[in-house]
Amino acid sequence: AEQIGYPVIIRGGFALGGKGSGRATHAEELTELCKVAFVESPHVLVEEDLTGWKEIEYEVVRDSADNCITVCNMENVDPLGIHTGESIVVAPSQTLDNTDYHMLRSLALRVIRHLGIVGECNIQYALDPRSRAYRVIEVNARLSRSSALASKATGYPLAFVAAKLALGATLPQLRNTITGCTSADFEPSLDYVAVKVPRWDLQKFRFVTDQVTSEMKSVGEVMAIARNFEEALQKAIRMLNIGADGLYPVPFQFPDLTREVKRPTPRRIFAVAQALRSGWTAEEVSIATGIDRWFIERIATCATMADTLEQSTFRVLDHPTLRHAKQLGFSDAAIGSLMRVDAHAVRSLRIQHGIVPSVKQIDTLAGEFPAQTNYLYMTYNGTADDCASVNASTCSAPMIMLGGGPYSIGSSVEFDWCCVQATHELQKQGHRVAMINSNPETVSTDYDECNDLFFEELTEERVLDIVERTAAKGVVVSMGGQIPNSLAPKLARHGVHIIGTTSENIDRAEDRHKFSELLDTLSIDQPEWREFSDLQKATAFAEQVSYPVIVRPSYVLSGAAMAVVHSSEDLEAYVGQSAFIHKEAPIVISKFEQGAKEIEFDGVAQDGMLLLYAISEHVENAGVHSGDATMILPPQRVNLETLRRLKIIARSIAHALDISGPFNIQFLAKNNRLKVIECNLRASRSFPFASKVTGHNFITLATQALLHTADTNARYQTVDLDHVGVKAAQFSFSRLKGADPRLGVEMASTGEVACFGQNAEQALLTALLAVGFRMPKKNILLTIGSLEDKVDMLPAMQELIRMGYSLSATKHTHEFLQGRGLSSALLYKLSENRSPNIQEYLEKRRVDIVINIPTHSTPRERTDGYYIRRLATDHGIPLITNVQLAKRLIEALAQEDLDTLPLLSWPGIVDRTV
Description:
There is one protein chain. This protein folds into seven domains: 8-48, ATP-grasp fold, A domain (Dna Ligase, domain 1, 2-Layer Sandwich), CATH 3.30.1490.20; 54-188, D-amino Acid Aminotransferase, Chain A, domain 1; 196-352, Carbamoyl Phosphate Synthetase, Chain A, domain 4; 359-499, Rossmann fold (3-Layer(aba) Sandwich); 528-591, 2-Layer Sandwich (Dna Ligase, domain 1); 597-730, 2-Layer Sandwich (D-amino Acid Aminotransferase, Chain A, domain 1); 776-877, Rossmann fold. 35% of the residues lie in helices and 20% in strands. The chain contains 29 helices and 32 strands. A seven-stranded antiparallel sheet has the order 8-7-4-5-6-9-10, with helices on both faces. The chain is globular. The chain starts with 7 loop residues before the first strand and ends with a helix.
């Protein structure tokens, strides 16, 4: 660092997603960054700081005969210093001149030949915008995140071609699978632009910094395709499903606009949009952000149109202006909002005047040779359709499958699996299927998984466009999660046929008031709840049902900010943090059932008749979101009478809602009483898990139920199995600097695993190992908040000592153990500023695992417990924050030998049961 001069960039070797990376401006910062990087990697890279340079990527393939082509080049809108996974990316590059483009292309070909790579590789460059100086940042001689994006952006099947080349084929021998009429030795040509925008969910984490850096924090991404950058960017923003109709109207308030423009965060694109309508010039914004002026000028074009629309009267809106607005990517809803009219009025006007999108195809050829493909997008910058496959007069009308949209916390690959499985079953039954999705990371957006792929936004406007253009038989909304499910009533109002459970019954389950009335009618118990627009009345209700209570806004942008509150002071603080409550934005308060077990019921019904179900129990008690909970199937600690009553209640609800298709019910069980939390008339995130553990494909049967073709006489065994499956959550707290890694009612996990065992203990240990949890060898730190939890954990702590573990504990936990004759070493908290100190032990990795059970109070500040959890996470030390999970883990360690855990194959183990 001293040799090349500060500032420098630190990167952990072999770390994905920029993990452990950062920018150091002096030696002290370098030391701190290296400490973090060495937790994840055996060595670090110290590199020249190129912050502010352009970042360009090329995807290259080469065969054993030295045939070599560049498949795609991509440009990051954000300058270097922001991880490419965190940046808006455009393909092909937009600001390179011909000289720069071919210089970098030639270099890419020279590099892949010099390295002798056969297959596919990705090369990343830094390019100085003030000169032609460049640096090769890295070469990935493998398929990468960028490879997936390039493949979807061009239609060139990179993974397929790379596999064939590895087996000895040459590029001229391979057919281009999307066209069928050209060879793979043909560089794709694009007559459109693809824009990728990341999706973040940072608002779900307390204390996390929202600054975007060289370390990835995004959980998903979308890709939009259009004929100009403006249209593609606005489509991509809508695809994110964060409540924005595009760049305008800007959905956020910026008290300090200058700071928001200069500071890279998930909201900066909106701050740029606001600045351009607030008098900033494109040059000023470009200097403040480091973003090339060309991109800023394109956004400025949209700002000018937003001004025009806002200052115009809808009754006299001229058609050229409306058409131009649509060509710039403004949605009907955005135009309506800017002009203070309903979106449906805008839709009616443009259809009346023939302003409708064209259907264009991605063929890798830019129309140079005639080709018919099923990879489609829609644009207002076209005068005719590219293909006949969407014309109902020349092709059978399809069923439309709505995908899940971007991966986010709460919606991930589970729903994509459901969409793909359902698509295959529909095709098997003779139906043509058109998929609509916007996520380049998914299998559902592979063009060979369906009859027609529309790489498009999942909005009311665009789905209606496609339904009308294809004369679709109907739309499947129950497989892709909450985004398509929430579109059901909107589509139904336009006369669109919802395949499966009716939109009216979907609404009865989704609407809290209607569903509550239904449960009362069926004499099914539920937690007490009310909706409030007044803090005083809310407090009175909370005191009436007794604290703790769960509080959530009835509607919140991009996800519910739920919390468990234990006092009127906590409730008042929650309301203050969530914004002032009023009639248009009430809060919902429901009684929180302490000590209750949460149970999931995944089912398939046809015409209200239950056909197939799976019951899973949560290891953690209620209070941990179902997406974060450790699930066991079949349930191990639920008695037969409870299982019988679960089934009776589920049958009753399925019949009352006349369900045809998948559904999920969440129950609370306490003292032999069952209460229903909610019912979702769609596939749940646990459907793939239930399908694989039981050996019965829930989605295949659910798809048959949608079509009313399922065999109602078939019987399925899902309870008495010879094996046990455990689903465990994968968390990314180590990437989210500052975030509190404790579990709660708001989902925090970014992935999951499922593992099998001959019993629950084997399955649990295997699942925890699969998410990277290192089992303790000797030293365990215990810090348990409440006396109730200490007493609950006592047998488990006794078992740890019996097994030979050495226990360390904070003061009150240490005294509790000492008082019961159990030995432990006292460690002082950070605030006590004494040795031996927890910070010293964790930094020196003298602890194998931390069991930190927080108190039940709602934390409003960074406590000692927070710093213990954060230190453990930052130093890669396994952390458990839940009593039930800690107890089950200790029981499993006592019962099973980690060295002899059986390796069970799937589907082999399931076949023996089924």
